[in-house]
Design goal:
Length: 178
C-alpha cells in the first residue's frame, strides 16, 4: 500500500508560481509571449501561471503532447517518437516561447522537445518547471525557472501530476512512498 507524504502546501505553490511569473515578466518585459504547456502534467501549472500575468500582457496559450514509446527511451535520448503535436497548431518561428513542464527529471523528453522547437526557429526559448529533479538527469539541461527542486527519486503527485493516472486533482504536492 502506498502512502502520500505532504511536500508542498497549496499556498507555497501559489507563492512560487507568482515569483516565477515575476521573473518571466522581467525577462520578457514587452511583446507577445507564447506559452506551451506539456500535457498532461503542466495543465494546472499553466492555468495558475497565466492568471498571474498583468491584464495588458499579450499571452498566447498552447499545449504540446508528445507521444513516444517508453520502451524506446535509452540513457540519453528518445529513440522512437510517434508524434510531437502543438494544439492548436502555430508557427513558433521568431516567437518568444516559454515551455511549461510539470517535472524535469531525466531531461530526455524535454531535450527532445527543445530540439524540435529550436529547429523550427524560436526567437527565445525558456523552460519553467514546477519540480526539478537534477539527481535523475541523464542529459545536460537545467530549466530556466524552477518552483521547487527535489533531491530524491520518489514520485511527486498532485497539482496536475500523477502516478498511474491518480492524484492529479490534489491542490498540493505530495511524495508517494510506494
Amino acid at each position: 500500500m502506498s502512502e502520500l507524504v505532504l511536500w508542498k502546501k497549496k499556498e507555497e505553490i501559489e507563492k512560487r508560481v507568482r515569483e516565477i511569473v515575476s521573473e518571466v515578466e522581467r525577462d520578457f518585459p514587452e511583446g507577445d509571449l507564447y506559452l506551451i504547456g506539456i500535457l498532461r502534467s503542466a495543465f494546472v501549472f499553466m492555468s495558475d501561471f497565466i492568471r498571474m500575468f498583468s491584464e495588458d500582457r499579450n499571452l498566447y496559450c498552447y499545449f504540446m503532447n508528445l507521444y513516444y514509446q517508453e520502451a524506446m527511451l535509452n540513457e540519453s535520448k528518445i529513440r522512437v517518437v510517434r508524434e510531437t503535436t502543438i494544439y492548436p497548431s502555430f508557427d513558433v518561428k521568431d516567437k518568444n516561447v516559454v515551455l511549461l513542464v510539470g517535472v524535469t527529471d531525466t531531461g530526455i523528453i524535454i531535450d527532445h522537445v527543445l530540439g524540435t522547437l529550436k529547429m523550427k526557429g524560436t526567437k527565445i526559448l525558456k523552460v519553467a518547471s514546477v519540480i526539478d529533479k537534477p539527481v535523475l538527469r541523464k542529459v545536460d539541461f537545467s530549466p530556466d525557472y524552477v518552483c521547487f527542486e527535489d533531491d530524491d527519486d520518489r514520485y511527486i503527485v498532485g497539482y496536475g501530476m500523477d502516478y498511474r493516472d491518480k492524484y492529479r486533482h490534489l491542490p498540493y504536492l505530495a511524495k508517494l512512498d510506494l
